[in-house]
Structures are given as C-alpha cells and as structure tokens.
Predict the structure.
Amino acid sequence: MHKGRSWSAAAAAFLTLTYLSGCASLSDWRGARAPAPSDRFPLPPQGTDVVGQVQVTTARHEDTLLDIARGYDLGYEEIVAANPGVDPWLPGEGTRVVLPTQFVLPGGAREGLVLNLASMRLFYFPESAPGEPAEVITHPIGIGREGWLTPQGSMHIIQKKEQPAWTVPESVRAEHAEQGKPLPKIVPPGPDNPLGEFAMRLSNPTYLIHGTNQPYGVGLRVSHGCVRLYPEDIARLFPMVPMGTPVRIINEPYVAGWRDGQLYLEAHQPLAEDAERWNGSLKPMEQAVASRAAGQSVEVSWDRARAVAREARGLPLPIGPGSPELDELLAKAPQVPSVPPWAVPVDEGEEAVQGASSPDELADNQSSLPPS
C-alpha cells in the first residue's frame, strides 16, 4: 500500500488483507480509531502554528518502535524521545507507544522547503492551485553526523535527478581510504546507491536532499551532510517540488507557536555541538518563547516551559499557567492501530534491525557503502 492512496481505499484494502491473511486480525483494531494522516495538514491561518494531533498506539509482540515510526512517518529520534524508557527494539506486546504526530510549524515565511536540523524534520509549503486550500507537508529526515554537519542558511533547488549516480566526494573517499575501505569514484544507480531513487541538489551544490537505501537511518545523524528521506516520502515529494524552490535550513531545538489562544512549546534535544556549547543553559528556549509571546497578553509558566525543555520529548505542550499536564493530554489522545492502513510494507533492512545494537550500527548494517 502506498501513501498517495485515499484513506478509505487504503483502509478497505488493509481490512480485506487482514481478514484474508489471518496474520493481523481485526482484534488489532478493537477500540482503535482511524488514524489521522501524519504527513500533510491543512495550512492554518497566520497566528496559528500547531498542526496535527498526538496519537497513541499499543505495540504488538512483533513491533519495534522503528516499524511503528516508519508507518506513521516518524524518525528514530522522534519516536524514541516521545517514549522514554521504552526499548526501541522490543517494546513488548501491550506497551503504550506515543506517536508525536503533532508539530509546531517553524517560524518565518511559509514557503518552499524548511528543514529543522534539531527536530530532524522537513516542512514543505507548496503553492496551492487557485481555489484549492493551502496545505503543509512534513516528513522526518536524516542529517549530517558530527563533523559533517548539514549546513544552515537560505538556498534553493538547482537540479533534480531520478535514478541518480553518486559521485563520491574526495573527502569521503579519503576518510574511507584511511579506514582501509576504499570507495569508487562513482556509484551507479541501483540498490547499493545511498542516494536512493531520487535526488534534489541544493544551490550549495555539495549537498543533496535525497532518498536512501538505508531507511532506518532516517531520524538519525548518520550522513556526510546530505539530507535523506524515507524512499516512499522522497518518491512523493520529488515530483511536487519545482526547480528553484527556496530551501531554508534552520537549527531550532525549541519551537514555540500558538493554537486556540494558547502558547505551545515543542522541545527537542539540542544537537551535540550545541549542547556542548550551551552547557545545560535553557536561555535559547527562553528566547524562543519570549519571541513568540511578545506583544501578546498571555502569561507564560516558565517553570512548565523549563520542564518541557528539559524532558525534550518533541511533543507540543501548552505552557500557560494551569495548562493540562502531559498525562492528561495523552489520556485524551486518539488510540490508533500500530500499523496504519497506508503503511508501506517494511521488509528491507529487517535483518539489520534485528542484529543492530545501536543507532549507528543500525544505519551502517544496511549497506556496504557509507551514507551520503
């Protein structure tokens, strides 16, 4: 099943398959609602910044957090942060899993592509056709690891390529030569190509937004600076993004925004480089919240804001005095099946997932070639 199909068609197909196969019975859906889409939302008017809703599912015995994450278009770090104390590889049958499928939109112009490195998430604001409602599309991304940080700044798309070959940068070849793992100058299209099936080159031409042959690296810092998406996400995004589309790359672990007159804070762990420099300071969070609250007659509970920032679960939470606690909000969250009806089959990399003991090993196990 593919994400481009309507929910009703996907749900009908899902229910038919589960009935015929008997391997995922209708009891999996008992008490669960139809899940809300987690990758595209109507674009709210200016002054409203929060889209989506947090959902909750219950793990089956065969589920990993990575399986659930990919089904709901979430990255590794997102789902792990939202579920502290839950084993990513063996959450266990009956374990509650929180799905962080609500987002505070990044500040600034709502146009083109906006990538937030700290949240490892892409937002696309396509131009709407006349008479059509505006929408925002969002996907998890993998980014550059320490020492190979994905660059920030304003850029645009200068090239689009289907079935790209990968010209391996000399710096990457030199690194691997030192490790006794020499690389070819060019990797042709195919299953061993870390760019996957689609690539879009930025005006900082060393860097690409591309697919991957290592899908479990999405939501992790494992690349040499390029931005990767799940294969199904780049396949859908690629034809929608025209040449010249502006791209803004930011690094904001603390994103504040408004919904229904309440100020929300979405907090992520800062990237390692920032965490070392800030040394535990929450001043960047305070600045982000103060900026969004400026000029508004609203009181901020700074104790609550600091608690949200320290926990850094990636869930947008209201930070006004008397705002409901997280447990109260989760108790009201929709209960959905662990496998949504639109999910693509997740077969590739299954053995690598089972054999990995860390996120880095997980990504590395899936290909003999390094991530781009």
